[in-house]
Amino acid sequence: MAMSIAQFTFFSRAASSSFLHRTNARFNQFTFSTPFSTAAATCTRKKNGRLPVMSALELGGVKIARDDVVRDDPTNNVPDSIFSKLGMQLHKRNQHPIGILKNAIYEYFDANYSNKFDKFDDLCPLVSVKQNFDDVLVPADHISRSYNDTYYVDSQTVLRCHTSAHQAELLRDGHTHFLVTGDVYRRDSIDSTHYPVFHQMEGFRVFSPKEWEASGLDGTSYAADDLKKCLEGLARHLFGAVEMRWIDAYFPFTNPSFELEIYFQEKWMEVLGCGVTEQEILRNNGQLDSVAWAFGLGLERLAMVLFDIPDIRLFWSNDERFTSQFTKGKMGIKFKPFSKFPPCYKDMSFWINESFTENNLCEVVRGVAGDLAEEVQLIDNFTNKKGMTSHCYRIAYRSMERSLTDEEINELQRKVREQVETKLNVELR
């Protein structure tokens, strides 16, 4: 149920379908032929801040070529910038803030539940539409299914939007207590807290009737009480003795549903979403007469607070001034900024059409500028007497590692304008 916090949005062709079939054994587990430290991370960074695109990955012993994921096909919207993130697995790096936080959560569950929870952090991020949406009861007409929000490899295959995409398969295989951690992918805006790739953790626990009958409570109430006790303990484990409150929420796969907020640094902050699993999910996956709870949290959102990291792009930095600041097993380390390079702002105005979306604009900007694009913000819009609507966007360019030259920025902006006009079919002003 790992669609939570501010990032909660609900949120094949033969080659791709064949790939899913080949890698489906044992929960779509995959391993890379070389570790991150000797593969993607050691590539020489290009001037625009992006790493070169690897031509192939090895998932579960099956080589996946770029053309299996990035295609010139009307049903495919995965760019090279997203393919390059496959296999980087920040959550498996023990000295990285994401990995440190994951391990701290593992420690809590191991200590309080006697190692009952099975842990999965290497499940393949390419999943079927059924796994990503249907199995967790996302409505057929929900906006999260659109090409504007989700990365489609083909009409039946996506890059998972949430770790809940593996929930049904794990249940069918008999797992009743599990934690699933992984990289997830969503088309999104450009600013300091949003990125098209981030990391989630889902927790799931199933109860049999004998566990709640002696309590005098019905199964739903018993599961909800146990869930809240578990997550309040997790919040104290991560944040200390903080004030907490529960907010009623809605998710399609749980009922009742809640959000946990804590009072931290003089404000209320949402930590995670959770709830009692819908009976339909349990029945569909062989868990008859059971109840269950599930929770989901975004690791970046929590890590930014716990480690004082101001910009989500920093998690992807290989600069030693960032990576050397963190130590395996240490949660109390606060990030010390190592540079304050100035941003450069460029404005761009154009007449939009009916198919225009801001997510599509951000994909174009990211495709050109990579992580040098710090923010894309709508600063003005109006509709003229002819009914034509104009948008003006301000793009902030900034490197976290060096100063950008005027020539670099002007060239980036020229390419952005050119591609916005051709790819989005808008009229520049």
UniProtKB/TrEMBL annotation:
Keywords, alphabetical: Aminoacyl-tRNA synthetase, ATP-binding, Ligase, Mitochondrion, Nucleotide-binding, Protein biosynthesis, Transit peptide
SUPFAM superfamilies per the UniProt record, alphabetical: Anticodon-binding domain of PheRS, Class II aaRS and biotin synthetases
Record-given protein name: phenylalanine--tRNA ligase
Any one annotated GO CC term: mitochondrial matrix
Lineage: Eukaryota, Viridiplantae, Streptophyta, Embryophyta, Tracheophyta
Organism of provenance: Linum trigynum
Keyword Transmembrane helix: no
Presence of keyword Ligase: yes
Subcellular localization, as worded in the UniProt entry: Mitochondrion matrix
GO MF annotation terms: ATP binding; phenylalanine-tRNA ligase activity; tRNA binding
Annotated family: Belongs to the class-II aminoacyl-tRNA synthetase family.
Domain FDX-ACB: 339-429
InterPro entries according to UniProt: aa-tRNA-synth_II, aa-tRNA-synth_II/BPL/LPL, Fdx_antiC-bd, Fdx_antiC-bd_sf, Phenylalanyl-tRNA_Synthase
